[in-house]
Specification:
Blueprint lengths: L3 E5 L6 H9 L16 E6 L3 H10 L3 E3 L2 E6 L14 H9 L3 E7 L15 H33 L6 H14 L11 H9 L8 E6 L5 H15 L4 E4 L1 H7 L4 H10 L7 H11 L2 E8 L2 E8 L4 H8 L1 H5 L1 E8 H7 L2 H6 L4 E3 L9 E7 L1
Parallel strand pairs: 1-4, 1-5, 3-9, 5-6, 6-7, 8-12
Antiparallel strand pairs: 2-4, 8-9, 10-11, 10-12
Helix pairs in contact: 1-8, 2-13, 4-5
The structure holds guanosine-5'-triphosphate and magnesium ion.
Amino acid sequence: MSTSLGLVGLPNAGKTTVFNAITAAGAPALNYPFCTIQRNVAVVPVPEPRLDLLASCLAPDEVKPATIEVIDIAGLVKGAHAGEGLGNRFLDDIRTVDAVLHVVRCFRQPTVVRAGGSADPVADLQLVDTELMLADLEVVQRRLDQHTKKAKAMGGVSSTVVDLFSRIASCLTAGRRISVDELSDEQLSYLEQEPLLTTKPCIVVANCDEDAVDVAAHELQALVREALPRQVIPFPGAVEADLSSIDEAEREEFYHELGLEHSRVPELLRAGFELLGLITFFTVARNKLHAWRIRRGRTALDAAALIHSDIAAGFVRADVFTAHDLVSHGSIGALRSAGKLRSEGREYEVRDGDVLYVHFQ
Ligand SMILES: Nc1nc2c(ncn2[C@@H]2O[C@H](COP(=O)(O)OP(=O)(O)OP(=O)(O)O)[C@@H](O)[C@H]2O)c(=O)[nH]1
Ligand SMILES: [Mg+2]
């Protein structure tokens, strides 16, 4: 299942700083380009306020949050698609992630070297984007050749795949990413199996100064919307990284002192989680409360398979209620009396916020 987010961007854009803010891993984030060469990897819990609410109703012995993987990748420079700055290796690291958080430098600090970038965040964004598109164009042309030859050998029937790669090649040649709206369901599921760099879901992280969170949000959002339609999340990386090592109870006070309302880390992780097309469901069994991640559109049987293969193999039915209903009724007994507990079969489509108890034999 898709679960990894990759931090991508120019050298010194603040990728490792954002990684440290999210993970509190304390990876080296220093003022020189290519400080990161080997990627940094961490698994982090996804912030989920409903889990705390459920825990207060159910008083479980154990609470386990859902997790996602965050990967900090080395910086890309101009010419990366042709191998510049170890580009090929770093592009391969991007190929392994499921979705991209594109970190763009919006902080001022003049002492931080601008490695290949300008003082213009949109130009920086486009530079990296162009490298990803050029790298994809090479792959797409190669695949197009292979599939065209195959189609010819099979009597000249143009396949869906040939059509897919021709469309992508013409988009990339025109300097734009293909949009999902331009592709058939069959082509989309092919791309899901073999994604390209530019077909991975992507959001922009505007790494900004703490006194410019709103400015960065508005300015970059407006500019990006014109250049490439993409969600922009303003994120004061340096401050968030510094505060990540401070005890949670004391952290709030520091945020207030800095004029920030709260940490932006949960918002960034939630956005990443949604970018991956994931939703959350919960299970309560043997007094353990567990949050799980699953792809939108999956069934109760898929959910059972995540919990344990034996549970899926012996699936009988699932008792289902929503976290929201449990919190408003206060207990499972009250929920049952109110008729809010349903019995569902294996084909039931799991919804975000469902609580499942799977009966199996
Ligand atoms: N003032 C300020 N400095 C930052 C911010 N983010 C990063 N820096 C500084 O910029 C320098 C580079 O940060 P890194 O996080 O190492 O950047 P990177 O994108 O991981 O760089 P490479 O690994 O070289 O590709 C460090 O000196 C950071 O302290 C920020 O939000 N504000
Ligand atoms: Mg780094």
